[in-house]
């Protein structure tokens, strides 16, 4: 086993606090800062342990934009404990403590469910041989969500404007995460404009569904393309929020939630999260339009993290 880099300075109080209370990404960031190692050096030390992790992944981990899930990633976390001279199991323990305090839990999904869904999503995308971005940059994503008369997530429709950054891009993989108790095998994916439905995969326990949307042309680098699709859901119980996660910097995102006339919420608000592990911030009350029975948010330029709209029923 290779030797970890040696430093005589004791861990600062900030690191001790982070290791005790977490969350994982804060502790990791504090540990890397305390050792004074640039991410390229951390990656180099990991390679000496036989673990391959990209600098981008390390950056996402310490920002909280992503969490280590795969076996190779968990091996990396254990190696990091030694490289960064941390107590054994200190980072793994924080990673395993997946439940948020009650005041910080999402209204509809626990933190554990989001982490489990993230791991499932990676596996489903791997089944479709899906690269991280499919060769596409998203310039705009407009999403319309329908809440039905039973207060359920009835369905959603998405319109994307994309630009190819390499030759040959000819598909997009859509992701839908239904509410707790949903039945993804009963959902229907609809190709509405400039695309057709390809392979569809789902995972019953987490409610995650992924679907290929195939273009009728292969894009060249620099080409722009617009397409639209929908997912008919309606398979779960009462819905209380809709969230959208982003792994990359992108273009504009607009979300509209429209309610049935017989099922209007008493309060609505928007929120953001740096990651599923982070507290919700940027809360802002939204007024339901009486005429259109809808609320909306617009992010001019999305960053890695989560944005969403939540609502309360009587």
Fold topology:
Elements: H1 13-21, H2 24-35, H3 39-48, H4 55-63, H5 71-83, H6 90-96, H7 111-127, E1 136-147, E2 153-164, E3 169-177, E4 188-193, E5 196-203, E6 208-219, E7 224-232, E8 241-246, E9 252-259, E10 267-273, E11 281-286, E12 294-299, E13 305-312
Parallel strand pairs: 1-9
Antiparallel strand pairs: 1-2, 2-7, 3-6, 4-7, 5-6, 8-13, 9-12, 10-11, 10-13
Helix pairs in contact: 1-2
Describe what this molecule looks like in 3D.
The chain is an alpha+beta fold. The protein folds into two domains: 85 residues; 209 residues, Sandwich (Immunoglobulin-like). Helix content is 25%, strand content 35%. The protein has seven helices and 13 strands. The chain has a six-stranded mixed sheet, with no helix packed on it. Strands 8-13-10-11 form a four-stranded antiparallel sheet, with no helix packed on it. A three-stranded antiparallel sheet has the order 3-6-5, covered by helices on one side. Strand 5 and strand 6 form a beta hairpin. Helix 1 packs antiparallel against helix 2. It is globular and about 60 Å long. It starts with 12 loop residues before the first helix and ends with a strand. About 5% of the residues have low confidence.
Can I get a quick summary?
By secondary structure, the protein is of the alpha+beta class. It contains seven helices and 13 strands.
Strand order of the largest sheet: 4-7-2-1-9-12
Query: Helices and strands: which structural class?
Result: alpha+beta
Radius of gyration: 21 Å
Question: Which residues form runs of ≥5 with pLDDT under 50?
Answer: 6-11, 98-108
Could you spell the SSE succession in H and E letters? Answer: HHHHHHHEEEEEEEEEEEEE
The second-level CATH architecture of the largest domain is: Sandwich
Q: What is the terminal-to-terminal distance? A: 60 Å
> Could you report the average pLDDT, rounded to the nearest whole number?
85
The CATH topology assignment of the largest domain is Immunoglobulin-like
